[in-house]
Description:
Elements: H1 3-11, E1 18-24, E2 28-34, E3 37-43, H2 59-76, E4 84-85, E5 94-95, E6 101-106, E7 111-112, H3 120-139, E8 149-150, H4 153-164, H5 172-193, E9 199-201, E10 210-212, E11 217-219, E12 226-228, H6 231-238, H7 244-258, H8 263-281, H9 292-309
Amino acid sequence: MCDRIGEVLSLYGLENAKATLLRHNENCTYRIDCREQSFCLRLKTPVSGFNLAVLGGDQEMLLRSELGLISTLGEQTDIPVQKPVKSLSGDVVERLSDGTLVSLLSWMEGVPFDTIKHTEQMLVSAGQTLAKLRNAVEANPILSSFARFSYDQKLVESLKVNAEQGAEYLPEKAIRSIIKALDTMSCIMNEMDKSEETLIAHADPGFGNMIWTSEKVGLIDWSLTGYAHSYMDLGGLMGATSDREEQRLLLKGWESIRGKINRRYLDAYFSLSVLLFVCCQYTRANEWIDWFPAALERWQETIFDPLSSGCLTPCVL
């Protein structure tokens, strides 16, 4: 076991525990098994090339607000979420000797969506869960009192700057396509500002962040949570699968709670989920040489260019 994990476990009084690495993206995430209990441990060490600077904010403040948000969601909604676990010092956030921020969460029992075959019930329930989250934050101002990221026009401008600086990794044609799509995204945000508020959204509703509990869909990994229009989570949800029937069932669940969608807004926020991925991680292109160039060209043709030209996105529904 590495020294850092040993230091973390001592802070929480977890002796003779087993640590299993689960994934490394914006956090380094482990499953901790100790004395017939399981926990989720997160170290705030983004994988190399995952640049979250564009989102801004103080990391400790953001971590504390994330934990406060999920605690409040657990208390005031029926959406399954994890619970923050206090260290021996009584705090929910600790800092290791090397400065790394850490947090420990309860383990959510169930099966991750990205490891199983999806039934209609599961997919409809996933759409309903994200729709219920939006309803909850609209009805409860407390849920929008936490310091989180903002997925707004200012962020879009920052993404444009990132794209313009990407000539070492991105073809010029792709950069132009990305910037035009981002300009269109900003215009759509301006339009949406007239009809709805930007409120808390999960902002990363991929299947890896959904747990099927056999009755409900639980949501994990709220670290990218931020203020956004209602279509932020729906757009991300459409990006969780390329299967059209699965997309339709996810949408069915959403619309059963929120009503008929605006297809233009859906396409815009689906596009934003891909634009965020590219603009925040393109420096990893050399690691992804076996798939990224072809994917980027495909996204340009089927997502970025259709959005900026006012056409439907062909890879959704």
